[in-house]
Amino acid sequence: MATQIDYDVVIAGAGPTGLTLANHLGTLGVRVLVLEKLPALIDYPRGVGVDDEALRSFQAVGLVDAVRRHTVPNQIMRFVDRRGRVLAAIAPTAQPFGWPRRSGFIQPLVDRELAEGLKRFPHVSLQLQRSVTGFVEFDGGIRIDVQPVDAHGEPVGELRVVTARYLVGCDGGRSPVRTALGLPFDGKSESTKWLVIDIADEPIGTPNVHFVLDDEFPHVVLALPHGVLRYEFMVPAGTDDASFESDDNVRKLLARVLPAQVKPNVIRRRVYMHHARIAPTFRQGRALLAGDAAHLMPVWQGQGFNTGIRDASNLAWKLALVVKGQAGDALLDTYTQERHAHAGAMIDLSVLVGKIFVPGNPLLRVVRNVVGPWLSKLPSLRQYIAEMRFKPMPFFSEGVVAHRGTPDPKGQVGKVFMQPRVADANGKVHRLDDAIGLRFALVSWSARADAWVDAGARLILDRLGALPVVVRPDCQALDREAPQGGVVLADTEGAFKRWFDEAPGGIVILRPDRIVAAVCKPWELSDTLRELARRMQLDLSDRPATAAEPAAVTTLRAVA
Ligand SMILES: Cc1cc2nc3c(=O)[nH]c(=O)nc-3n(C[C@H](O)[C@H](O)[C@H](O)COP(=O)(O)OP(=O)(O)OC[C@H]3O[C@@H](n4cnc5c(N)ncnc54)[C@H](O)[C@@H]3O)c2cc1C
């Protein structure tokens, strides 16, 4: 007799990665159980920088407004020397993906909004004080041991067992799921530690972030929302954590950076060590890893949280297709293929920035202090840094992408699609993703693309629940030649016209995570869809498709 499956997906860990994944899966109609061993979400100081890709992921599940309440948009990051001279500034002005490229934020408050978001889904539940202690696969599923624990993590009551199709370990850097899988976590942990101090009633009134490159006293000052100011101080080698975070030492440290008349209202403090590690694979059988469980990086580029959110967006729609029987299990292998290299690139960048901030060797220190100020005067370099062009952006040469010929890193396929504003037939302006929803889309310039698909390719579009979209200049009529079951949108910013001008075809196939799966010409469309279906192991058999439509599509919100 087949074992009963309680949930489609069980998620171990209610940090931002697990909660975002659960919100995506909930939106896609997947039955989810999130298990968290703690009695409440983590409340200590952590992430302070949220990027545009993460905000877009929250937008996809209708939570971006709630999240943005806890952000400082367009926060500038300045690297200054001990005399306060600015050596470099990260201050992007463009918003190619529809949101500020970098915003300050308070992670525990955002995590709470993500947990609150789960209450919208009757098929998603979050259970606290439940520790995942083991798991074993069986034919068709995975059996997970869940130990109820008290507020101190001590076992209470009997071990319980739940079954699921898949288990995702979003259980943080020490990931018990990764450990149980026997996966190494290669890389290194830096010997330097940092003390993070949060102060309420912001006493200096800065809206931005300053990295003070002072060999004697390197530190970071960050303005957070809700009047919180954060300081980060390096713990000198050989100092024990307890004495460094003692009241007395915290007072002394703050006295070095704040005027004497300020009596800082310290609300949190904690010592951290930085790590740069990555698991060799993010999937083994029916167990997957996401977020810090899969990769850890030093905080200097503020990308740990954001990298976990990208994992969640990449994995969610794939899991949804697989658990609904619409795609084969091998689709989940594309998760490691697509995410591993990019997470590795983020780790490398974070390590590099750490070396510039606190150079370990004296030669590097001289180069930074002497050559750095001269280099920073070069306009092209200044612009490169200001606009964050150094940030590694996803580019998938393999996975659920159909490149024409050799994958081209300068091309459009396998990259994040832009998010301009568009107008609907009623003249209401929306961000693109709000007009599409969390689903595949077949977007064409000017003319209908669906008219070009043969019967086999139409089945693929149907099984994917893809939305046909035609985009036209905003002066043209939008009520003519609408695609069947789709929409016509106006290119209010001219962004589509520019994009298609450079693209090798007038049709773009977008994935639910807004990665460009393919660009093609109308007569290439059917074959391109077949190639993507093959890569996804899409089920094109005669059986009736199960719920191809998302259970709850993001509400269409007009923007000013
Ligand atoms: C000082 C500091 C500053 C940072 N700044 C930034 C920044 O500016 N930007 C950025 O992007 N990132 C930043 N980060 C990193 C960011 O905080 C993490 O990358 C992020 O929290 C990882 O999220 P996660 O959900 O993967 O893991 P976590 O947030 O660690 O969540 C894992 C959860 O799993 C639970 N868990 C563990 N074991 C079990 C089990 N057996 N059963 C059930 N539950 C379990 C844990 O209790 C925890 O709640 C910073 C981190 C630090 C420390």
SSE layout:
Elements: E1 7-12, H1 16-27, E2 32-35, E3 49-51, H2 52-60, H3 64-68, E4 71-72, E5 77-81, E6 86-90, E7 102-105, H4 107-117, E8 124-127, E9 130-138, E10 141-148, E11 160-169, H5 176-180, E12 186-200, E13 209-213, E14 219-224, E15 228-235, H6 241-244, H7 247-257, E16 265-278, E17 283-284, E18 287-289, E19 295-296, H8 304-323, H9 333-357, H10 362-375, H11 379-386, E20 421-423, E21 429-431, H12 432-436, E22 441-445, H13 455-464, E23 467-473, E24 487-491, H14 495-502, E25 507-510, E26 516-520, H15 525-536
Parallel strand pairs: 1-2, 1-11, 2-8, 5-13, 11-18, 22-23, 23-24
Antiparallel strand pairs: 3-7, 4-7, 5-6, 9-10, 10-11, 12-15, 12-16, 13-14, 14-15, 16-19, 17-18, 20-21, 22-25, 25-26
Helix pairs in contact: 1-4, 1-8, 8-9, 13-15
The protein binds flavin-adenine dinucleotide.
The site of flavin-adenine dinucleotide (FAD) has 35 residues, from α1, β9 and α8.
What does this structure look like?
With 560 residues, this protein is α/β, with parallel strands linked by helices. Among the domains are: 7-67 and 103-185 and 276-351, FAD/NAD(P)-binding domain (3-Layer(bba) Sandwich); 395-560, Glutaredoxin (3-Layer(aba) Sandwich). Helix content is 28%, strand content 26%. It has 15 helices and 26 strands. The strands form 5 sheets. Strands 1, 2, 8, 9, 10, 11, 17 and 18 form an 8-stranded mixed sheet that branches. Strands 6-5-13-14-15-12-16-19 form an 8-stranded mixed sheet, sandwiched between helices. A 5-stranded mixed sheet has the order 24-23-22-25-26. A hairpin with a 5-residue loop joins strand 20 and strand 21 (429-431). The protein starts with 6 loop residues before the first strand and ends in a 24-residue tail after the last helix. Mean pLDDT is 92; it is low at 547-558. Bound molecules: flavin-adenine dinucleotide.
